[in-house]
Amino acid sequence: MARGVWQNNIQTGTGDIVPGASIDVVNEATGLEIDVYAARTGGSVLSQPLYADANGYIKFYVEPSRIRVTATGVAGSQTFRDQLIMVPQESSTDATADRVMTVGAFGLGGTDAPSSTGADLNNLTVFGWSYQVSPTNGPPSIGTIFTVMNMPSTASGGRGSQIAQTNTIDEWWVRSQSGGAWSDWKEILKAGDYGLGGTVIVRSGLDMNDELPTGHYFASGGTNRPVGAINGWFTVEKLTSTDARQRYTDANSRVWERVQTSGVWQPWVEVYTEESLNTNVFGVTASNMSVATGFGISSTTCRFYLPINRTSPPVSITLTSTFAVRDAAQVLVGSSVSIAIQSALTSERLLVLDVSGLSGVTVGMPADLRSESVSSEIEVN
């Protein structure tokens, strides 16, 4: 066992040295003589009393303990009580009982933590930080270098915990030990991870059939997204590694959902929302498309009915671009027509419009209100 050192210059109360002083060393608690040595390790027990040199200097080694040193000379005696003798660590991972911790011990206070390559993290036994390269039983990270904090609760009960930080990427992992068995590593989430608490994760050129963890994302381009969808937001909800659900909302507010069962993705199904079922806006995607059907009520006017869904009857309409009216044979009977809401006939569920300024109309004649451009639109107010 390594020994600690005690050394001093024996002096009188007035500061004069005491050459050749007789030195006795005992255990402070028991008063019994204690073994003293001339070196930190090895060698034989020295006989007591010891003697200071001509300059009053004395140096000896003892095993860690509390000692009492009595120095006796021509000027009397001097006692040094309760002298704590301790031994410093032999390395930054020296866990020998009663050793004095040095700067850097177990990764504390220094610039470099104790390091290992290929170590088994299940076998770490002492409390402290370490630098681990490619360890076994480490976190399931794509990184291979970790700073690990080992925190045993008991030496023999197999209880404790570990924290690991992946050095090459911003990840933190934790696990615990109970009854000698270690739990699985669990990643500590940070704001922004998986699109939570921050901005969503942008995926460019993503194949949406690829396995993704539960989270919130934005798809920029890619494959296997809904037909007709443009770039948009989507969420993934994993049940198992082969069972999940995805919900996709594109920048036009169209929504789709699909599920994965036993590893097989089902077709996307569009979810109809207030936006996609907006019965308060009647528009088209091309010119000369039918917007509504109706019939003639005079030689110059046709009436059209459009279903709406409101809590109160509309009071006006807003027209964008122009419309035309054609008869059942698609013969034009009016272009850039005048359209007016019939408030007395309109309700919360039905919009009634009269289109006037027509020619060749007969009462009861079927009529078709059609767009004259891609931007033709009737909005109910």
Count of helical regions:
0
In the predicted model, the low-confidence regions spanning at least 5 consecutive residues are none
- Content-based structural category: mainly beta
Mean pLDDT: 90
Largest sheet, if any? 7 strands, mixed
> Residue share in helices?
under 10%
Query: What would you report as the Rg, rounded to the nearest angstrom?
Result: 45 Å
How many beta strands in the DSSP annotation?
Answer: 32
Strand fraction equals: 35-45%
Structural domain count: 4
Task: Measure the end-to-end span.
Answer: 93 Å
* Approximate shape: rod-shaped
What does this structure look like?
- With 381 residues, this protein is mainly beta.
- It has 4 domains: 4-88, Immunoglobulin-like (Sandwich); 99-187, no CATH class; 193-271, no CATH class; 281-380.
- 0% of the residues lie in helices and 44% in strands.
- It contains no helices and 32 strands.
- It has strands spanning 4-9, 22-27, 50-51, 57-62, 65-73, 76-85, 87-88, 99-100, 115-117, 128-133, 145-152, 160-166, 171-178, 181-182, 186-187, 201-204, 215-220, 232-240, 243-250, 255-261, 264-265, 269-271, 281-283, 290-296, 302-307, 317-320, 323-327, 332-335, 338-341, 350-356, 366-371, 377-380.
- Strands 9, 10, 11, 12, 13, 14 and 15 form a 7-stranded mixed β-sheet that branches. Strands 16, 17, 18, 19, 20, 21 and 22 form a 7-stranded mixed β-sheet that branches. It has a 7-stranded antiparallel β-sheet with strand order 28-27-31-24-25-30-29, with no helix packed on it.
- The chain is rod-shaped and about 145 Å long.
- The model has no long low-confidence stretch (mean pLDDT 90).
